[in-house]
Amino acid sequence: MAKSLISKTEFGIYCAAGDFYIDPHRPVPRAVITHGHADHARAGHGAVLATGETLDIMRIRYGETFAGATQKLTDPIRLGGVDLRLVPAGHVLGSAQVVIEKGGRREVVSGDYSRVANPACAPFEPVPCDLFVTEATFALPVFRHPDPLNEINRLLASVRRFPERAHIVGAYALGKAQRVIMLLRQAGYSEPVYIHGALQALCDYHLSQGIALGDLRPATIETAQARALHGAIIIAPPSAFGSAWVQRFADPVIAFASGWMQIRAHARRRGVELPLVISDHVDWPDVTRTIRQVDPQELWITHGREEALMRWAVLEGRHARPLHLLGYDEEPE
């Protein structure tokens, strides 16, 4: 088997021929960032290369000086001894896979990715390759995500059933919050959607990129006290559930939008009354379908359910290895 262009290091995945790291979890001289979630996009690198949207999102989250230098990757570039390009990952706005080529060999680091249509970002692009690095967040046969529009219709049914109660939906600030709002609009919900202040900047950025979120209003203490939010849908980061903010609302329906809501014990631990199984990651059918599509000789598996996917790969006759990378999890709040 040919020598890989990338390797696992204590900082994350490293390409020696191009002298860059991919989504390193500590500051490095040069980093290629797949997307703006905080467990992949950290501040303090000497230089960051990413899509324009990811660079903008990092500026919103970390300030203008989040890196020593930045470079927007729109077209393929030559970096050291390798050709480097980014292709869509379908995960969140600006998300990308990293495609590295040298001497006829192609390796793809997919980052986090999804195969379900998401109007906030370009769809995942399968790239046939010699080595494919895949996430395994939901890589167990039990994880088969339902149609997200059906989950949103469950939310709307609850709003009709309990018109006197506000519905507070927990959703991560980047990607999931906007996805829930867009699904509501797709389902025909034209009422204002109220948002926690922590979501404002990223929602404003999505709007600036032409992503139609409709009428958004702040979920302030004034609107809560004026009872204007009875029967309303409010989107908030998960951290808000443990804060004094949520106590402003009388008897709200607590919902949560996540692929983990398929596991009822997760919902119970969070005190979730209405679990919504809405994910921006591949489930078991989609991760296995994707691997067959890109058809790599070698498969590397990161942050997630590595053992099940390793076993599946062996049965498929593929060479696979778990990376056991540390520092990657769900979006921190």
From TrEMBL:
Protein name in the entry: Ligase-associated DNA damage response exonuclease
Entry-linked InterPro entries: MBL, RibonucZ/Hydroxyglut_hydro, Xnuc_lig_assoc
GO molecular function: exonuclease activity; ligase activity
Protein's UniProt keywords contain Repeat: no
Keyword Protein transport: no
Top-level enzyme category: hydrolase
Organism of derivation: Thioclava litoralis
PANTHER family: BLL1145 PROTEIN (PTHR11203:SF49), CLEAVAGE AND POLYADENYLATION SPECIFICITY FACTOR FAMILY MEMBER (PTHR11203)
Keywords for this protein: Exonuclease, Hydrolase, Ligase, Nuclease
EC number in record: 3.1.-.-
